Amino acid sequence: MSLRIFNVLGREKQVFEPLEPGRVSMYVCGPTVYDHAHIGHAKNYIAFDVIVRYLRYSGNDVLYVQNLTDVGHLLDTGEDRILRKAAQLQAGPMQIVETYTRSYFADMDALGVQRPDISPRASGHIPEQIKMIEKLIEQKHAYAIDGNVYFDVTTDPDYGKLSNRRIDQQEAGSREAVRTEKRNPEDFALWKRADPEHILRWDSPWGEGFPGWHIECSAMALKYLGPTFDIHGGGIDNIFPHNESEIAQSECANGATFARYWMLVGSLTVDGVKMS
User: What residue numbers bound the domain in which 139 lies?
Assistant: First the structure.
């Protein structure tokens, strides 16, 4: 019997056929390591652990990549989550990252969740992210203004195909303040200029700064799985803007389909409020 999965890209159950018979490539958005994991995280990663186990039980060789976000994931105020935690605890940002990365894996180990084959960190792949941004600028899909780089969503006719949101229905992503320097309100940041107090910063062709949240997953998926891979997993709450932006920047940069099957799990709620 063929395996059928619900592909969010298309909103229907589809027969799962990997690119290469017997080999499955899978990328799942991992946690932002600024605090201990909660049961909402556990629910998500247990779900993908079951999927990976079943695929392997069925005779497939699975390459499972799950990233760790340790830079670029901002609050609605524009403040970096890790830097805020570091200030609260009077610790260095990488100390925060190490503490909560160990805590996350200890919790998953206690739950019997198998570790991913590769757990790349965003901060360890800055050159890959810069390279992809440069390519997008060269291809006229992105533009630099005053140390910031934005993706121009109007250059991608397929933008919105995962979340079924047309550009004229959209507002700028909630994690990014609207800037008047953008060509379009919906354009999202690929690279952000670092303010003087921002500790996490790297040199780039556009000056010192740090990558946007979305570009990290595109760059790391490309490095470890190639331009096209089988399954992209994550939480349904990240379908927009994160997953939508991943698709846009990846497919525009690489000229190929990004992920073929999208498996997004529902959020755990307590009294009707999503755990966060």
Answer: 22-274
